Amino acid sequence: MLNPNSRSLYTSALTPPPGMIFDEAIATTFSMDPALLLEAPVYLALMAADGQTDPDPLSVLEAIRRYSKRITVYVQRGRIEVPQIAKPNPLFGFLEEMVIEVTAPGGGVFHPKIWAIRFASPDQSSAMYRLVVLTRNMTTDQSWDLSLQLEGTITGRKSRSNKPLAHFFKLLPDLTTRPTESSRVEQALRFADELHRVEWELPDGFDELTFYLPGTKGFDWEPPIAKRMAVISPFCSDEVLQRLAKQSKSADALISRPESLSALKKETLDLFTQSLHLDEAAETEDGEEDDSAAQPHATGLHAKVYLFETRHYSDYTHVVMGSANATNAALKASKNFEILVGLVGRKNKVGGIDELLGADGLGEYLVNFDMTSETENDAVRQKAEESVERARSRISKGALSIECSPGAKDGLWALLLTGEIPSLEGIVRASAWPITVTRDFAVNITKNDAPGGIRLGEFSTSSVTGLTAFELRTNHPDVTARFVLNLPILGIPEERNAAILQTVISNQDGFLRYLLLLLGDDKVSGLDPGNGSGFAKWLARLADGEDIPLLEELTRTYSRHPERLAEISGLVRDLSQGGQHSIIPEDFLDLWTVFESAIGGRDA
């Protein structure tokens, strides 16, 4: 039921079922690593490339270009992580449209961790959904977590049990912190409608499936009256645990982090037969923080699951898991925006609390919490952490934006951070820089003396972005926060995307290879999970110096997929900007003029 030796990666969830292809996806998360998000479209494009571990840069570029409009990630504002890069990476600029910052309607945090992935048949005649409910964020931490993967087909009838799930996706556009593209709004509403009508295949042994939105009227979660109960939650509040314990005749186990257990009242711990935490040998570092305060010594537990054993003619096990910690913000005051999913099955089929705590479950990784030990309270550090989180919140709520204008040198663009920088008590230095470049370009934003805004510097066209990194430093040497805001940007140069292209397609060989990616159908380009050998053959022919029959390929595309020639036209136009004509072979330009004339004639 909870196997600590089994890990689920985001990318594996994107792998299409047999006979289907990826169509589009929506993900939600509290925090996010932009580098991890870049991996998703690349994985989609290269998953069938015969175990290729070092993707061709052009394949990466084409994957991001193709899928960036079909993947949307909703993330808590102020919780995008600063990517760890050793050199500038202009590809991060493509994430601006994919990432949408949101806030919780109740004044808490946006905390759900879920993927809804739509797959379709190649001819688009049928579609299905994969739903992945997670307990961890879209980051690279290796915390112990729990995930549930469901698959189902779209039917013609709405399912009552899916109503909370549909409501969840319908609400997403209302939580955004700034206006969202109409296509992203339409996507969320389309997902809400179709997910309402999905018939899910339940995991083996389970008979019931229910979705909950804690604190949302009509969709709230009420724990069942149970014989036995166990709670796994990295963060806890006395009030919530006491309420849960009262719902059960026996509160068998509370599994949390040592610092969370130390903060609980003795009378709360006494309600549970066992108070446990992961053995230090099984712990890893995690990036998420408590709902109310920073937890600097975060250990590896990140799973959030509530287990109940009930009796109604037979013994049943209830598994309730998702994003909600056993905290006031998540389950009592319900200020956070959370999602939970509940499964019910006969105990003799799915196991129960004893199996969870046994040798085949988490038992060998758990140790008893020593209530006599006291966690050292570093008041200076705690004060610094409170200061940095308060400053993060103030900057995130500010009306900041980026203004872009031509720089002093030809080919460079000046970025100006506009809007009022709030007072940042306890912060000794605050810095900012575009995430497309390294931290070496960071500028101090605590000294806001310049009229009109703060000059972030002058950057190449390909590095222009609204994704802005912030760093907050305190007097405490170990307390620093880094985060990214997706700020609105004014005056972005029209040739920005073309410049990003030119950083990857830097010569004629690169142009020809990228051209073949655009010309080839999904099988040729390696985007079809059923056959990844086509593009590899093209690359082999190019490597051998063989002439590629461009006329044949252009003619085939003109006949079968004329819309793709519009992409070629855009590519030629983009790569011709900035005096880069040498990238495009003259022979191809002569050939292309014929097809441009044909395209014009067809459109007429």
Automatic annotation (TrEMBL):
CDD domains: PLDc_unchar6 (cd09176). It comes from the Bacteria. InterPro entries: PLD-like_cat. Gene3D superfamilies: Endonuclease Chain A (3.30.870.10). This is PLD phosphodiesterase domain-containing protein. It comes from Desulfoprunum benzoelyticum. The lineage of its organism: Bacteria, Pseudomonadati, Thermodesulfobacteriota, Desulfobulbia, Desulfobulbales.
